[in-house]
Amino acid sequence: MALPAAFFAVFFAYPVAAIVARGLKADGGWQPGRIADVLAQSDLRQVLWFTTWQALLSTALTLVIALPGAYVLARFDFPGRQALRAVITVPFVLPTVVVGTAFMALVGRGGLLDELWGVRLDTTVWAILLAHVFFNYAVVVRTVGGLWAQLDPRQEEAARMLGASRLTAWRTVTLPALAPAVAAAALMVFLFTFTSFGVVQILGGPAFSTLEVEIYRQTADLFDLSTAAVLTLVQFVAVGAILALHAWTVRRRETALRLVDASVTARRPRGAGQRALLGGVVATVVVLLLLPLAVLVQRSFGGAGLAYYRALTEADGGVFLVAPIEAIGNSLRYAVTATVIAVVIGGLAAVALTRRDAGRLVRGFDALLMLPLGVSAVTVGFGFLIALDEPPLDLRASWILVPLAQALVGVPFVVRTMLPVLRAVDVRLREAASVLGASPWRAWREVDLPLVRRALLIAAGFAFAVSLGEFGATVFIARPDNPTLPVAVARLLGRPGDLNYGQAMALSTILMIVCAVALLVLERLRTDRTGEF
Amino acid sequence: MPTDSLPPTESPIPADSLLRLEDATVRFGGRAALDAVGLGVAEHEIVCVLGPSGSGKSTLLRAVAGLQPLDAGRILLDGRDQAGVPAHKRGVGLMFQDHQLFPQRDVGGNVAFGLRMHGTPRAEQTRRVQELLELVGLPGASGRAVAALSGGEQQRVALARALAPSPRLLMLDEPLGQLDRSLRERLVVELRELFGRLGTTVLAVTHDQGEAFALADRVVVMRDGRIAQSGTPLEVWRRPADAFVARFLGFENVVEATVADGVAVTPWGKVPVPWDAPEGTRPLLVRPAGVRLVPAGDGLRCTVTARTFRGTHVAVRLQPEDAPSLEAACALRDAPEVGDVTGVEFDGAEIAVLG
Fold first, then answer.
1. What is the DSSP letter of B327?
2. I need a labelling partner for A241 at 20 to 30 A (CA). Which of A97, A305, A313, B279 fits?
3. Which residues, including other chains, have CB under 8 Å from residue A403's CB and lie 6 or more apart?
4. Distance between CA A100 and CA A200 in Å, rounded?
5. How is residue B277 annotated by DSSP?
């Protein structure tokens, strides 16, 4: 408990507080008037407005497209179901930069649609919306579908025996049971899209900018710290509100639903309607999720064979001080370190949260742990730079800075994955072990560890994928001679020329493959009941 | 019920008991789950704690096992105070209510667990596991998955697991609680026979009086965290300490009576009592066998309101005109029909005046 708390205090609360203080303090005093000044600027109000409505629209669109998918995967049994389930999860763990690049290759200038029909969406908001749907499809399918698969179909049958039509039975029995899960998923999607950075940075162009992108622009390009600080505060408040709502819906979801084993609720699709629905979902997944990735891979070869991949191995002294290919090594090294940190910190926090005598304070910590998911990664990254710059915590020159920031984002995933599993371990099993002569540590090793080992591996995998793809914070603190994969991709994209573009595609493809492999390994381990992501 | 003297079966705890509880108290919030309990278990003795749910009997076991700290009082094993001794160093065995077998280990792995914790050599472990599985009637089950076992088999594995490290005291929490009736009746006999053979000291808790009476050398009845009565099964059955114990044992004919000169005045009229019955105003128990049916007109006039077939006899519920209802046991061929009017007389040998 003490270690995770200290970790968060030093590497999260302190840097964020430091950057806020830096922005709002002038001449030795607080300047709360700045907040009003900033919010009065019409272009910033525009950013706030755009951030909100694109998030709302993205959420609505994701729900509309993903709910049929949730239904199909929950209730239908068909060949390739496991594979489909794995495929839809790939995008969620893909780095935002890769997603942005993939959509660029699909709908951007010189993209596939441009070549075929002369259609370009990269100047419209649609590119962003589609990328957001791509990303969050899995969130809805996992959260809603996971519950849907465990709802007892006999409840609906009972309603029908009492005279309800098929539709009425669904509306009055299933829908109310699903509603909290739908709400929780929607809030999660809203949170992710509200704080979207990488996707908007790449696809938004000069026309569209979210709060997160604006915070980056204000700090990195304009050095206007006070504006950035105010925007950080605004985002902080919004995220806090969303997380509070989310915690509330999750609590409601946990109440009094009788769940059954998911394997008994699915059956083969029957009739033309159900087969059409299944076909539609598969088609959606292919077009929306697989096509962008396929185009990305195709562009990385660009008719030039392996030329772009070969170019990655050469340092041109321009964009990078080192060959881009070295970013792979950096990324892996950072991600492994970040994973170790995230698993230790998150695991300890989860164990502390499952203790029976956990008080209010500890439960509050639960919500706090979720904050890094929503608080501007850019702020954290920049906060690291300005807060951890004096002894004894002068880490600016240390490579550990990057894994620390990445671990911060990984911890919530570890906690969320571990908590339900740890909570499910019966304390009396532990007691049985101790009566048989096992010391508390031995009892944990003999009883808890075997039961949570899978969850631990899954948590580690998530932390690894998230760390690998982390962009917002890393872009600030990764040093020029040690870029990570996402940072290298973004830099390549920021420069003109086919070679740079092709190299970005090639590097993204490599990143995608690493993430997908990590995920597919996980998918073999995971069960439906594990975790909330 | 007022009790102005200790129940006659209550005796001081022998100093050489293997297990001694002295004023053991556990409070949950304001409620005392164990209220100054004193109890002793001698070596090789089988003691069964009997009580309704919430009477504190499981808390008693958990306190002895070291899973539940005491708020006051002492627990001594072999004369040594166990305060501060953690569960894994107490050397007692506990068989949990729903067995709590380790799901990720097979049968052999479960039974060997305690041996491993005590550093028993591997060859010795294998030998002992085999021996125990034979003892509980599951020879060759070592490699089976726990999930594939039936309830009765799980119970046997749990027992073997608890016995494996040869605990100086074996505790059983509702050992047969979840099993069906015929299995329970068979296993309780097997258990008693087994414990007798091994010389195991046993402290068991149950809410089932049949189980307790069949298993125990001594029965301890608990109520609201206190010991209501302690004695051999026969003693407890024949002389329940008070109205609570009598009702808990399933007796329904319990009323307030005034006893003097070998006769008790009750709402059912005057009834004979044993010559040595204590005098004064006390609860009085009439066992169903002591309620004799006689032709209408003789004795107490009653109407039959229900009859229940009980296998060996018929339980007949009788309603006198203005007194509490009575339960009588009579042979099947003599049982009156519902609605019949009958007379009732009382047999002094089946009447007990309670504490």
1. E
2. A97
3. A334, A335, A337, A338, A341, A467
4. 8
5. P
Contact (Cβ atoms closer than 8 angstroms) between residue A131 and residue A100:
yes
Positive or negative torsion for Cα A272, A273, A277, A278: negative
Contact A428 B100 (CB under 8 A): yes
Residues A486, A471 contacting (CB under 8 angstroms): yes
d(CA A259, CA A264): 11
Which residues lie below 8 Å from residue A338, measured CB to CB, with a gap of 6+? Answer: A402, A403, A404, A406, A407, A410, A463, A464, A467, A470
Helix (H, G, I), strand (E, B) or coil at B2: coil
Query: pTM value?
Result: 0.68
Q: Which residue of B has its CA nearest to A445?
A: B117
Whether this model's ipTM surpasses 0.90 comes out as: no
- Label residues A278-310 b or e (16+ Cβ within 10 Å = b): beebbebbeebbeebbebbbebbbbeeeeebbe
- A449 shares contact with chain B (CB less than 8 Å): no
Q: A517 CB contacts (<8 Å, ≥6 apart)?
A: none
Is the CB of residue B119 less than 8 Å away from at least one CB of chain A?
no
The answer, for A452 touching chain B at a CB cutoff of 8 Å, is no
CB A291 within 8 A of CB A448: no
Q: Is there a contact between B165 and A436 if contact means CB atoms under 8 Å apart?
A: yes
- CA torsion through residues B125, B126, B128, B129, sign: positive
Q: Is A258's Cβ below 8 Å from some Cβ in B?
A: no
* Lowest mean pLDDT, pick from A53-67, A103-117, B59-73, B126-140: A103-117
How do residues B191-212 score in pLDDT, each as one tens digit?
A: 899 888 888 899 999 988 888 8
Query: In what order do the strands lie in the sheet containing B280-286?
Result: B269-272, B263-266, B254-260, B280-286, B351-353
Which residues of B are less than 8 Å from A428 in CB distance?
96, 98, 100
Residue of B106, B110, B113, B118 best to disrupt the A interface, most CBs of A under 10 A: B113
Spatial distance between the Cα atoms of B207 and B239, rounded to a whole number of angstroms: 19
